[in-house]
Amino acid sequence: MDADYAAKMTAFDMKGIVMNEETKQTYIMLADQYLVVFSHLISEGNSQSFAHEAAANMLRAQYEAYAERSDA
After folding, report:
1. What is the crossing angle of helices 21-43 and 3-14, to 10°?
2. How much is the average pLDDT of 45-63?
C-alpha cells in the first residue's frame, strides 16, 4: 500500500460522512501517522502484517491516552 493510494482511500471513505473540519483533520492526521509507522516498519524489513498491527496499536494507544485525558 503506498501513501497516495491510502490517502485516496481515506478521502473516498470520508465522502458522505458528516463531520466538522476539526474531526476531518483528525482523521487525516491519524491516517498520516499510521502510514509513517507502517512505511517505516516495512522499510526495516518487517512483514505487512506486523507493520499493520504495530501501526494500529500506536493509534489505539493514542486514542486511549486522549480518552483518559478527556475524562479527567
Report:
1. 150
2. 94
Instruction: Give the integer Cα–Cα distance in Å for 33 and 69.
Output: 20
Query: How many residues does the structure list for the chain?
Result: 72
Measured between alpha carbons, how far is 21 from 50 in angstroms, rounded to an integer? 32
Give Cα 66 distance to the centre of its chain.
Answer: 15
Contact between 42 and 63 (Cβ < 8 Å)? no
Place of cell 489505539: 60
Residue owning grid cell 500506536: 58
> Which of 34, 40, 42 minimizes the C-alpha distance to 61?
34
Question: For residue range 5-20, what is the model confidence (pLDDT) as tens digits?
Answer: 776 666 666 666 666 7
pTM of the model: 0.67
C-alpha gyration radius of the chain: 14
